[in-house]
Amino acid sequence: MMKTGSSKVKISFNSPVILTFAIICLISLLLGLATKGKTTDMFFSVYRSSLLSPVTYVRFAGHVFGHAGWDHFLGNITLILVVGPLLEEKYGSSNMLFVILATALMTGIVNFVFFPRVQLLGASGVVFALILLSSFTSIREGEIPLTFVLVALIYLGEQVYQGIFVQDNVSNLTHILGGLVGAGLGYVMNKYKMNRY
Fold first, then answer.
1. What element of type H or E holds 2?
2. CA 144: distance to chain centroid?
């Protein structure tokens, strides 16, 4: 707590879902570094494994908490901490939790089914979901925001281009799926909110 003149200023836990998400990602990164990647492989990345193992189902969602290193972590978490709290304030904590879980499960299950030799980890799918969701914040009945069109073209178009022409370790499909989840849920949540008024 800080004092400024006669009033007290305190730091608030203003965005519980986004902050908790960031903290879990940090803990999983530190555990991964401490165990030389063993905990990351075990809980915080998704890849083809036995459906008889309960840990396989943890990985379907847990992979969004895992990161390959500090650069990977900071790149994702910085964007999440910038965009996420504004969205959590607009849509509510339970909706933000649903967006994150839906993105995690969608990207985790798709990777498990279609890319058996690829180990997926990181919150970039969540980042793209939040970016596309944020472009729906000013939607009105019967209108598609130009910001949504531009964001979709820039972010998703870049991912399609990179997926076709650039060979790297980035999962472009995860970004595209995350963006589609964010756009779809943004549309549904805004439509539901408008219909209530």
1. strand 2-4
2. 23
Residues 125 and 174 sit within 8 Å (Cβ to Cβ):
yes
Rounded Cα distance between 66 and 79, Å, is: 16
Q: Look at residue 140 and give its three-state secondary structure.
A: coil
Q: Is 122 left (phi over 0), alpha (psi -120 to 50) or beta?
A: left
Residues 79-115 have pLDDT tens digits of 999 999 999 999 999 999 999 999 999 999 999 998 8
Output the pTM of the full model.
0.84
C-beta of residue 123 within 8 angstroms of C-beta of residue 49: no
- Which candidate, 116, 186, 180, places its Cα nearest to that of 145? 186
Domains assigned to the chain: 2-196 (1.20.1540.10)
Cβ–Cβ contacts within 10 Å for residue 25, how many? 22
